[in-house]
Write a structure and sequence with these properties.
The complex is a heterodimer. Chain A contains 25 helices and eight strands. Chain A is α/β, with parallel strands linked by helices. Chain B has a domain of 111 residues: 2-Layer Sandwich (Alpha-Beta Plaits), CATH 3.30.70.2190. In chain B, strands 12, 13, 14, 15, 16, 17, 18 and 19 form an eight-stranded antiparallel beta sheet that branches. Chain B has a five-stranded antiparallel beta sheet with strand order 5-6-10-8-9. A four-stranded mixed beta sheet of chain B has the order 1-2-4-3. Classes of the chains: A alpha/beta, B alpha+beta.
């Protein structure tokens, strides 16, 4: 087995230190510090792994405060995959140190089991109902847990009724469907935003798409993000198995992180002879919802929406999947919508999955920059296509008291279809 | 090594959140876009002129080297801290202080990124012409330190034409103002000394820049030639006829082949060379210019001429040129970018010579040139894992610069001297020329605090700072 240093040597040598990645790196843009950039991270990893001038453990901050947004690679002439390098190093650190119990619980027990994940979210709901959350906040209990405590305000309120079963009950049969898809609901919507799941199903139905909601588990990205590749692979195999038993044209999700990672199963399972082929077949069917709707020819029988709309590109959509035009095509086809492009639309909002919980201060700086760009457009509606982004953006709008509504693209589409003539 | 007490003093000036001094910090500021590496002792992020002044007073008192640094994208080793000391990082002085279209001025702090300024000006219908290839990343302070150019500089001129005034902190911490907001400079015009001084005379803390309205319209053409001589003659004819295009870029066959491997700009891979020509100005004047340029291209045996009819076609023509260095990086991440300039009519001879040098050293050299200015950028490719190839490539680069000088040209178009071209200065200037420059340095920085060890080769036989070979 080659060591990680041997494995990464070629990739690290790819960087010619030109510095063109710097403007694409949000953490560099808000700190101005070289080692908070892709070039800096690669240079320090080279110092640690190849030149042995540093211990890898001295670089914890640089390794874990990377948003892995891939904004750098977009600007990089030789295309250095800094995000992938960071993922690989995190994996190694995990192997050396072991995983904190809370992550083990989350990645190995909760995520593979939608039922348990749902129950865990009920605890949050209980905290809301009983006022424990307020109490914790008032007593400063949340402060005791550091950055995660500061991020407490970001944890969404849990609605009263939800769960994957509730989403399943939303499914309706439609007349003469042209397409059959499996809806990959993701972890967020069932527990925190069932109304978005309902909107997704209605929008698909409006486009003559019949929707099935199987018992998919987590896509595996959160586990991989913290270096637990075994858990990620187990989740992937389970999802592939579920899809293989269905007769579907596509696997569709409104979550950019999910669609991106589901497509990545090809790489994830490339070395597993039993699963590599199946992973390819599975990934070939995965579509982000904007990508899918534009592919099949969006139904434009919509009612008018009087909104000035701007779009935030989720990293997992624009940088990971190169999907940039489709959401804009959709927004511009809604009658009445005035679309206005914001500056740095494709720069990360600082959410990056659970990053905001672990690197609160830096995440907030990245968010403030994003909010400045949003405010300058004068838009009244901020649309995106990723639950983590939406959560972060809503939080930013709230903090800055901007007169802006934050919506998933499916919610806006749903509203437009509901406004259509002859619709009640 | 500087004393820990100095770092405490610096922290007292800027606050400890604006100081970095751990090993990992020093390593992160030990390099720039060249292959060199030397360690600084501390990195300081001033927030304002007072900070810079106080830092310089301290450095002056303690005789500590100070290297001003922006984004560290320079290609000449200019920000390598060869004598250790303080890296004075301006990235946090990045405010645009004023944009005044009536006066055609922008006032900025030095850490503002070139493209951020362009983006602020664009909605107003204005722009700042110098457009170095690094403009997405590089700072205005760095642009001024290197007197940056770019494709548009054929028509508009380089950085020095667009800096009207500067607030500068001198080596002893004194703050002076040179030039002015208005266009009249009584007394000595010191701007010329400071622009392009590569951080060796002072550090600018505020810049008064000249901005101009965007041209009403532009037309872009691609002319394809079977002989490089024809390419260059067409350039001479066009400019000789009094036409001043916005840009004329030349790419040779090998460059087109490399570009087409990754960018797919639609460039021919079998032609000796191509020209990208853009004219800009009043819409109804452009048609005539396009006609004239077409005629000059045809007269010089252009085998094909494409004139962009839409914005998409224009973007496609430029996409290849913009992606040129990137395409090279994709097949060979480490490469040497030469930067030499010859009189325009010597361009074919210079490119021919570059071909001979490539042959002699058995290295692959691809060429892109700001043809309108006679500014060549031969890119010399080599294998990073073979130190001997790097040595050979450097020798080839030196030969190219010598050839430029021999043709009456110069050793830098826009990248500066720094460490990379220090020795070539000997071929360029007489001892008396160089002595005059050294005297200027001595007047402003007698203790050699600002960016020491750059630009001038040591008076005794030059010993360059040790290179870290493959550690790039």
């Amino acid at each position: 087995m080659p060591t990680m240093a041997e494995e990464l040597e070629q990739t690290l040598q790819l960087c010619n230190k030109c510095g063109l990645c710097l403007p694409g790196c949000p953490t560099y843009r808000v700190t101005g510090i070289e080692w908070a950039s892709a070039r800096g991270r690669v240079a320090l990893l080279r110092s640690a792994l190849l030149d042995k001038k540093l211990d890898l453990n001295d670089l914890n901050e640089q390794i874990f405060n990377c948003l892995t947004c891939n904004g750098c690679t977009e600007h990089c002439p030789p295309g250095v995959p800094t995000g992938e390098i960071i993922f690989r190093v995190r994996q190694e650190l995990l192997r050396q140190k072991g995983q904190p119990w809370i992550q083990r619980l989350l990645f190995q027990k909760l995520l593979p089991n939608p039922e348990m994940l749902y129950k865990a979210s009920r605890l949050l709901r209980l905290a809301d109902v009983t006022g424990l959350r307020t109490l914790a906040r008032k007593t400063g209990l949340t402060k005791l847990v550091g950055d995660a405590g500061k991020a407490e305000a970001m944890v969404p309120k849990v609605p009263a009724s939800e769960g994957l079963d509730a989403v399943k009950r939303m499914v309706k049969n439609i007349d003469k469907p042209k397409h059959h898809v499996a809806y990959f609901v993701g972890c967020y919507a069932p527990s925190f935003a069932p109304e978005r799941a309902a909107a997704t199903i209605r929008v698909l139905n409006k486009n003559q798409v019949e929707v099935a909601v199987p018992d998919f588990v987590c896509c595996g990205l959160p586990a991989a993000g913290y270096g637990d590749m075994e858990s990620a692979k187990n989740l992937a195999r389970k999802n592939i198995e579920i899809a293989s038993e269905m007769n579907i044209d596509a696997i569709v999700t409104p979550c950019a992180s999910c669609s991106s990672y589901l497509k990545d199963y090809v790489k994830l399972l490339a070395d597993d002879p039993k699963w590599a082929e199946k992973a390819k077949e599975f990934a070939g069917k995965v579509k982000d919802i904007s990508e899918f709707l534009v592919d099949i020819g969006l139904n434009t029988e919509m009612g008018e929406l009087k909104r000035k709309v701007t779009f935030h590109d989720p990293c997992h959509l624009v940088h990971y999947q190169k999907i940039k035009d489709q959401p804009r095509t959709i927004l511009k086809s809604i009658p009445g919508v005035e679309f206005v492009e914001m500056g740095e639309a494709d720069m990360c909002c600082g959410a990056a999955g659970s990053y905001a919980f672990k690197n609160y201060d830096l995440s907030q700086k990245v968010l403030e920059r994003k909010m400045g760009n949003v405010a300058r457009t004068g838009a009244d509606t901020l649309v995106s296509s990723c639950p983590a982004c939406i959560m972060q953006l809503a939080c930013g709008v709230n903090q800055q008291k901007l007169p802006v509504t934050v919506l998933e693209i499916v919610e806006l589409l749903d509203e437009a279809y509901r406004n259509a003539k002859g619709n009640d | 090594m500087i004393a820990p007490s100095i770092i405490k003093d610096l922290a007292r000036i800027v606050g400890k959140e604006n100081i970095l001094a751990d090993l990992k910090d020093l390593l992160a500021y030990s390099y720039d876009a060249t292959m060199r590496q030397e360690m600084p002792d501390v990195i300081v992020f001033p927030r304002n002129t007072e900070h810079v002044s106080a830092i310089m007073k301290l450095a002056h008192r303690e005789k500590i080297a100070v290297v001003p640094r922006g984004a560290g994208t320079n290609l000449s080793g200019g920000t390598i801290p060869v004598k250790g000391g303080i890296v004075l990082e301006i990235s946090r002085m990045n405010r645009i202080l004023e944009i005044n279209t009536a006066d055609r001025r922008a006032v900025v702090e030095p850490g503002v990124i070139n493209l951020d300024l362009q983006n602020a000006l664009a909605p107003l219908g204005y722009f700042y012409p110098p457009d170095p290839a690094s403009q997405k990343t590089s700072t205005m302070g760095g642009n001024i330190g290197e007197n940056a150019g770019g494709p548009l500089c054929l028509r508009y001129g380089v950085t020095s034409k667009y800096v009207f005034g500067m607030e500068v902190v001198l080596a002893d911490g004194e703050v002076i103002n040179i030039g002015d907001y208005v266009e009249d400079f009584p007394g000595y015009d010191l701007r010329g000394l400071f622009i392009g001084s590569e951080g060796m005379l002072g550090i600018a803390t505020k810049l008064i820049l000249h901005i101009i309205p965007k041209p009403e319209a532009s037309r872009t053409m691609l002319a394809i030639f079977d002989r490089l001589e024809d390419c260059s003659q067409a350039v001479s004819d066009i400019i000789g006829a009094g036409i001043v295009p916005g840009a004329i870029e030349l790419l040779d066959q090998k460059m087109c082949q490399v570009i087409e491997q990754s960018v797919k700009a639609g460039y021919p891979t079998d032609a000796a060379g191509i020209l990208l020509i853009e004219v800009a100005g009043l819409a109804n004047a452009l048609e005539k210019q396009v006609q004239e340029i077409s005629q000059f291209c045809q007269k010089n045996n252009a085998r094909e001429l494409r004139i962009a009819q839409t914005n998409a076609e224009r973007d496609a023509i430029w996409a290849g040129r913009r992606g040129a260095f990137g395409s090279v990086a994709r097949i060979c991440p480490p490469y040497i970018v030469c930067d030499g300039t010859v009189p325009r009519d010597k361009l074919p001879a210079a490119l021919h010579k570059v071909g001979e040098i490539a042959e002699k050293y058995k290295v692959l050299i691809v060429n892109v040139a700001h043809a309108g200015d006679g500014n060549l950028h031969p890119l010399i490719l080599f294998d990073v894992n073979k130190p001997e190839e790097h040595e050979t490539a450097k020798k080839a680069g030196d030969d190219i610069l010598d050839a430029c000088i021999a043709m009456g040209g110069t050793i830098s178009g826009e990248h500066g001297i720094g460490l990379e071209k220090m020795n070539a200065m000997r071929h360029m200037f007489d001892p008396s020329d160089m002595a005059a420059m050294r005297r200027v340095k001595h007047v402003f920085d007698p203790d050699d605090i600002f960016n020491p060890g750059k630009m001038f080769p040591p008076e005794a036989e030059a010993v360059l700072p040790k290179e870290k070979g493959a550690a790039r």
